[in-house]
Amino acid sequence: MAGLNFAASIGKKAKEDIPVTNVQVEGIVVAKIIKHCKECLPNFVTGQLLGLDIGSTLEITYSFPFPNKVEEAGGDEDEDASYQLEMMRCLREVNVDNNTVGWYQSTFVGSYQTLELVETFMSYQESIKRCVCIVYDPQEAAQGSFGLKVLKLKEKFLNLFKEGKVTATTLNQEGVTSKDMFQELPITVTNSSLVSAMFNVLQSDGQADQGTFDRLTFVEPDLLERNLEFMMESVDEYHGKIYQVSQYHRMSARHELQHQQWLQKRKQENAARRAAGEDPLTEEDPNYTPLTEPSRMESFLISNQTTNFSEKVVTLGGQALQKLCIVESLYQK
């Protein structure tokens, strides 16, 4: 038994050392996530992801939604936890994978990089070291994109946040930037043989249908305008954070100057006391406490959001230009 326990511990340790590099999701899970997020628009929803952790691949085989707190007013965290445990107990009775591997959530125009997301990761990391979050954006999916992203926190940033060291000094020493917060993992959608066979039967013979022509629909001006508005708001928020940091440095310099003046005065007073044969006073100011350096967490999140919105503007503009060129060539023919 001792040998088995030792082997099991070695296997567990080796498993935790292997980073997750790929996420494999069942097609039914993708359909359930999309259905849940679209049905509850414009409210944001979340749900649990269940599956298997195999080496560098995280397999997601089942999911279930969390109760909508907007509809069920008065629900607390204890009720949510009881609901999750009851659902997993029921799934275990019908031989469904009931190992928690993360959660999913809906977002609006890519605005998912928030402090709440990081704190949720930390909450899951306490019991599940290799967890992921699937983010679904209905607005992006409506424009023909996949709409699903799989995220996880990078290990270096995770350790700094856990220790409460997300400050400018620590981040510069560790070489951590805003790009080192989240890691987007590749996602693979798999289906059973029966589902794949059904798709082959339903697939058309290459003839153009309405769905084919819908791909030439131009990007909605409202969507492009909304991304531009969010990007400008993020830039304004980032400037506000820069002002807060500059205020901290000014107040810190003034505070340090006052301390140095007090210390110099105390040294002169002690020199006079020594000359008079008296005991010197302590040179530690009881009222002096260094100012706490502000956290860079919100600045990092705002920077990532700004980058995300700007990339979406570039993508939407590029798609519209490509469709214009295609339509123009069709008219010329």
Walk me through what this model shows.
With 333 residues, the protein is α/β, with parallel strands linked by helices. The protein has 2 domains: 11-191, Cytidine Deaminase, domain 2; 229-332. Helices cover 55% and strands 15% of the residues. It is built from 11 helices and 8 strands. The chain has helices at residues 2-17, 27-39, 77-93, 115-125, 138-142, 155-162, 168-174, 193-202, 210-214, 221-275, 297-332, and strands at residues 22-26, 46-54, 57-65, 100-106, 132-136, 148-153, 182-185, 187-190. The chain has an 8-stranded mixed β-sheet with strand order 7-6-5-4-2-3-1-8. Helix 10 (221-275) packs antiparallel against helix 11 (297-332). The chain is elongated and about 105 Å long. The N and C termini lie far apart (77 Å). Residues 1-11 and 70-74 have low confidence and may be disordered.
